[in-house]
């Protein structure tokens, strides 16, 4: 199950990498072409050269940072580490934000509005769960052709637990389907688009590896996924 889920997620990850890299690669191409053209027409001066090179360096640094983010995501080290929860969530959001933007989905993150929360995590595994939930929300909103799409992420501290919520305005999960969404091989997608393993493995990760809870409810807007994790004092 883990092997099948990992293979499916790696396919999604390649798509996320493409979304992340498209803009900086385009910027590098435009700046390099502009420099070449201005040099050919003897219009290149030091100011333009320096500004263009700074833009290229900024884009290449962004690509390097993206590689480091993905390396964290796929690393196999399964040691529990004490981390700031908001930092790990932000790294997951960095991976998918370009994909969400390209699908006209507004990402609303309020997690930095409260003090840093520390917990024990296996690096990469929480990101895996968050990315899966966000990609599912994206797919549903695109499939339903939802207007003014958004995903909102909040976090709060209650009774020594951090409760992360991910809500979308995709119309919610049918009540008859809701109890089954974490079952292995259950999927509402066409067999070519989904394995039915994503949410099942996400629940396994949160509850058996990170000793938390993962569940979902419907709101007046759509679906809300809840991730509960213990706080380390």
What pattern of helices and strands is seen along the backbone? Answer: HHEHEEHEEHEE
Strand content: 15-25%
Radius of gyration: 20 Å
Task: Record the strand order, biggest sheet.
Answer: 2-4-5-7-6
* Secondary structure tally: strands: 7
C-alpha termini separation: 34 Å
- Low confidence ranges: 190-196
Q: How does the overall form come out from the CA principal axes? A: globular
> What is the share of helical residues?
40-55%
* Average pLDDT taken over every residue: 84
Largest sheet: 5 strands, mixed
Helix count equals: 5
Structural class: alpha+beta
What features would you describe in this structure?
It is a single chain. With 233 residues, the chain is an alpha+beta fold. Helix content is 50%, strand content 20%. It has five helices and seven strands. Strands 2-4-5-7-6 form a five-stranded mixed β-sheet. The chain has a two-stranded antiparallel ribbon with strand order 1-3. Strand 6 and strand 7 form a beta hairpin. The protein is globular and about 70 Å long. About 3% of the residues have low confidence.
């Amino acid at each position: 199950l883990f092997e099948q889920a990992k293979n499916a997620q790696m396919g999604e990850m390649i798509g996320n990498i493409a979304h992340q890299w498209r803009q900086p690669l385009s910027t590098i191409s435009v700046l390099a072409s502009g420099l070449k053209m201005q040099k050919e027409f003897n219009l290149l001066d030091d100011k333009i050269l320096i500004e263009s090179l700074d833009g290229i360096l900024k884009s290449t640094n962004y690509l390097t940072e993206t590689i480091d983010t993905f390396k964290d995501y796929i690393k196999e080290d399964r040691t529990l580490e004490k981390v700031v929860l908001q930092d790990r969530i932000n790294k997951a959001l960095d991976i998918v934000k370009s994909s969400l933007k390209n699908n006209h989905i507004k990402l609303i993150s309020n997690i930095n509005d409260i003090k840093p929360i520390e917990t024990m995590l296996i690096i990469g595994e929480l990101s895996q769960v968050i990315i899966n939930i966000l990609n599912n929300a994206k797919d549903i909103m695109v499939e339903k052709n939802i207007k003014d799409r958004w995903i909102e992420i909040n976090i709060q501290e209650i009774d020594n637990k951090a409760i992360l919520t991910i809500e979308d305005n995709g119309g919610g999960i049918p009540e008859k389907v809701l109890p089954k969404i974490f079952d292995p091989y259950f999927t509402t997608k066409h067999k070519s688009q989904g394995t039915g393993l994503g949410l099942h493995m996400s629940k396994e990760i949160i509850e058996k590896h990170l000793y938390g809870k993962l569940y979902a409810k419907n709101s007046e807007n759509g679906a809300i996924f809840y991730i509960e994790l213990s706080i380390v004092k």
